[in-house]
Structure formats: C-alpha cells, structure tokens
Amino acid sequence: MLVTLIIPMLNESGGVPFLWSRLTDVASKLADDQFETVFVDDGSTDNTAALIEQLSVTPTLSWKLVQLSRNFGHQAAISAGMMQASGEAMIFLDADLQDPPELIPVFLEKFRGGYDVVYGVRKNRKEPLWLRACFGIFYRLFNAISERPIPLDAGEFGLVSRRVGKLIAEMPERDRLIRGMRSWVGFKQIGIPYDRPERHAGTSSYSISRRVEGALDGLFGYSKVPIRLAFYFGVLVFLLGGAYLLQSYMMMFITGDTGVIGWRSVITLIFMLGGANLIATAIVGEYVCRIYFQGKQRPLYVVEKTLSSENN
Ligand code: UDP
Ligand code: MG
C-alpha cells in the first residue's frame, strides 16, 4: 500500500537529517508498504529545501518537495501537501519530531482495521503551564459552542484515508483548521494517546499572537454562537434599558421629584451600552471579514516549484 506522509516545514533545517533517519527506520520496519514523503517548504529562509534535496531514498521511502512561493502558514502548507498526495492514506506530521514517527505503524494498523481517521491525542504536553491552561480553555470553549466538537488535545498529527483527505483538500474555505474539518467529515474516527516530546531543534514558529489568531479562527470559523450571544446580550441590554426607563418614570410620578438626580447611572449606562454595542459590532465584523476573504476566492497558497526524489 502506498502511504503519503505530509510534512509542513518552516525553517526546520536543524531537524531534517534526524527526521529523515527516524522515518527511514520506521519505513524499513514496514517493508510491505511504500512511503512517499511530501515535504512542503512553507517559505523557509534557511536551507531546509537544500537539505531535503540531498536526502537519500530507499526502495520503500521516497520524497517530494513542494516549495511555496512564500510563507502561507501551517494549515495552508498541509493543504498544499494534500493536493500532491497519491497514497491510499495520508499521514500528517510536524517536522520538529514532536509527532513521533514511531506511531505510524499504529495509525496504519487502525486504518487497515477500518478507520478513516486516526489521530494522536497528546497525553502530556511539555509546554509551560500557562500555555497548557490556555489550550485547555480553548478546546473546552470550542467544544461547548461549536457545531461539531473536535477531540480534546489532538492536533493535526494523524492519518486520514484518501477519501477523507480528498474531501478536506477540496473544501473551499479559507479559515482552515484541519483538525476541525477532519472531525466534521465523519466516518469511523479514533484517537491514539501519545507523549508529545519537546521540539528536536529550532524554535516554535507560533508566536502568542499567531496562536490567538488560530484560536479566533477556530471559534469564529466553526460556530455561530458568538454572534448569537451578541444578539441575546443586545436584547437583554435593550430590555434592561426599557425597564429602567419605566421604573424612573414611575418613581417620578410617585415622588413628584424631577431633579437632576442619577447622572452617575446615566453615565454608567452610556458606557455599558457603548461597550455592548462595540462588542456586538466586533462580532458581526468577524463574520463579515470572513465572508469578505472567502468572497475573494484567492488560492490558499502558491506553489513555486515541485521536485521529487525520482527526478532529482
Ligand atoms: N510550520 C509551517 N508554516 C508555518 C508555521 C509552522 O509549515 O507558518 C510547520 C513547522 O515547520 C512544523 C509544524 O508546522 O513542522 C508545526 O509548527 P511548530 O512546531 O512551530 O508549532 P508547535 O508545535 O509549536 O505548535
Ligand atoms: Mg512543534
């Protein structure tokens, strides 16, 4: 069986030889299968691509290199790799060896057992506590409000069958969270727990702001709940305002006092309503933005060139 390994790469030169030797080991133990590795160079500025071109192949392990014209982001890079995949199954893994290639046989076994989607579930995260807490909050919030939950603590690391891969690759949306799309597709899915080690070399290219952006993409891209909340909140504030007005007129009639009292509460209300307005507008804006970018129908990425070990 031909299996495609899809590996997005941004400045991963420090890890390429180690990654390749681990993959070679795994492939040599699975001699009945053929492995085609699709490296997607997502606009690296180091010599990642040059190192890949030097990799030596074995009878069961070959490589392709898809070079994007600039950095398009992790999710777009995986999508670019999926378009080049010819295997019966596709396996996504990171280049930094945080996704241990030794799990590949386990994924394949489940695939042969009839699962269309097999994904790794991180047992223990090595990230700092505060980051882990943020991830925990995000996944739980996401699942509480999203149309379709995604498994807790699972990233892209995992296997999808050719049909699921094709479905995901052909989804036209721009806000791509592959773990979300993968869960949406359905079919038989299963999670495999594993220990996630630290990066082998280099540093994570995800800054805090990029992670926040990813989280917002996930929340707004997969859920109508934020905009609904804004609506309900707006209704609540409106009704409270009405009740307040009624109450103050009644008090005026009862006590006969029309003096300039309560200016503090007026100011408070102005601030609160202004804030509520801003929140609601921002939420609408989030969705409008997404419609705008989707409407542009730009390609998700641009391939500069492709190379493969066969014609290298
Ligand atoms: N990556 C990529 N494009 C990007 C950012 C990351 O192709 O814009 C790759 C990166 O080389 C790695 C994988 O995506 O193989 C995961 O990135 P990283 O290790 O930085 O993320 P983390 O593991 O910290 O979430
Ligand atoms: Mg990593």
Q: What is this entry, summarized?
A:
With 312 residues, the chain is of the alpha/beta class.
Describe this structure in words.
With 312 residues, this protein is α/β, with parallel strands linked by helices. It has 2 domains: 2-223 and 299-308, Spore Coat Polysaccharide Biosynthesis Protein SpsA, Chain A (Alpha-Beta Complex), CATH 3.90.550; 225-296. It has 10 helices and 8 strands. It has helices spanning 16-29, 48-53, 74-83, 104-112, 129-145, 162-170, 178-185, 208-221, 225-255, 263-296, and strands spanning 2-9, 34-41, 61-68, 89-92, 117-122, 154-161, 189-194, 303-308. It has an 8-stranded mixed sheet, with helices on both faces. Strand 2, helix 2 and strand 3 (61-68) form a beta-alpha-beta unit. It is elongated and about 95 Å long. The chain binds uridine-5'-diphosphate and magnesium ion.
